[in-house]
Amino acid sequence: MADHDSHRYRGFSSCISRHVRSGRIPAGSGYRLRLKKGFSVRFPSPCILPSSEDKKLLADDASPPIQNNRALMVRLLNIFTAAALAAALLLSYRLKPDPRGLGTHEQLLLHPCNFYSQTGLPCPSCGMTTAFAHMARAEFRDAFLAQPLGALGFLMCILFLPVFLFAAFNGSNPWLKVKQLPLKPLSWLSGILFLLAWVFKLSVFLIR
Question: Which residues make Cβ contacts (< 8 Å) with residue 107, sequence separation at least 6?
Answer without folding.
Answer: 95, 96
